Amino acid sequence: MINALSYVVVQTPHLDAWIAQARHHVGLHVDVVEPGVCVRLRADEKVQRLLVSACEGESSMGMGFGVLDAAALENTRQALEDAGYPTTAGTAEELRLRGVEGMVHFTDADGVRLEVAYGLADAETAFVPGRPLGGFRTGDMGLGHVALITEHFDELSHLYRNVLGFKVSDHTQAPFRVEFLHCNPRHHTLGLAYTGGPAKIYHLMLEYNDFDDVGRAYDMALVNPECIGVTLGRHINDHVTSFYLKNPDGWMFELGWASRTVGPDWGVEELQGMSLWGHDRTWLPDDKREEARQILKRLADQGVRAPVVTTAQTAKAKQ
């Protein structure tokens, strides 16, 4: 049913800080819809990939998942209703702001707003990054991936797998329980984690086309080390090299490069851990942080490695 993470919707009391970080650090294209009220953040030719609006009080983030057309939207809506998730049709204003032809929304067990939409429009102007960079890897694989820390792991796993049609890529129990789910060739579009803590948005992964753009973003973060939520490292499953940047609302952008893809012959496996090296998660309690360090040590002792499969830089080298 779902074919991609199409966009995310953010409500924030820190709109100006969001604009500054998105443009100058992450390198997104900022289109102001209404000054001081709403902006569209672009990562490619689409009219928006993040819709960010000002609010008072607590911030929130919801996800917009893409389907093929109106018929697919109706099928998904019916499946959600049959599974006990009441849906609401998007208003004309909501459709206009998102640049989509049709949309319904509902709320998951953790209170996160989820939207299902089709027909995300192209922008009328070219994509111009906020700082010099080689662009973001999107296309048919969507914006990137989202990771959620959930209090209702089994219920959310059922929702995404059995109602929305996601498939398992892999899973692990250490240093906490995680399930990685895909809906297109991107290794995973969603990560569900049960850490024993309260439900929250963990991160949104944006994938650069060029490795140097990760390094330059990391250079900028090192000027203010407190903004780094997870240090530079490489994941064991999707092979992304990345670091995690705290955004103004306290959750994180994972800024990465060179994710692997999955196909119909993909084999699900239990992972030995989360990362091959690096990725010190500063937010973990001390015992879990030490457990993660020991996992990295075991992997190093075993000599575990992974290939690098790149796209944009390989193409440029052949020109």
Describe the structure.
With 319 residues, the chain is an alpha+beta fold. The chain is built from seven helices and 18 strands. It has helices at residues 15-26, 70-82, 92-98, 153-163, 211-222, 286-302, 312-317, and strands at residues 4-12, 29-34, 38-42, 50-54, 60-66, 88-89, 102-107, 113-118, 145-149, 167-172, 177-182, 190-194, 200-208, 228-235, 241-246, 252-257, 269-270, 275-278. The strands form two sheets. Strands 17-10-11-12-9-13-16-15-14-18 form a ten-stranded mixed sheet. A hairpin with a 5-residue loop joins strand 15 and strand 16 (252-257). The relative contact order is 0.14.
Task: Characterize this entry briefly.
InterPro entries: Glyas_Bleomycin-R_OHBP_Dase, Glyas_Fos-R_dOase_dom, VOC_core, Xdiol_ring_cleave_dOase_1/2. This protein has 319 residues and is an alpha+beta fold. The chain has helices spanning 15-26, 70-82, 92-98, 153-163, 211-222, 286-302, 312-317, and strands at residues 4-12, 29-34, 38-42, 50-54, 60-66, 88-89, 102-107, 113-118, 145-149, 167-172, 177-182, 190-194, 200-208, 228-235, 241-246, 252-257, 269-270, 275-278.
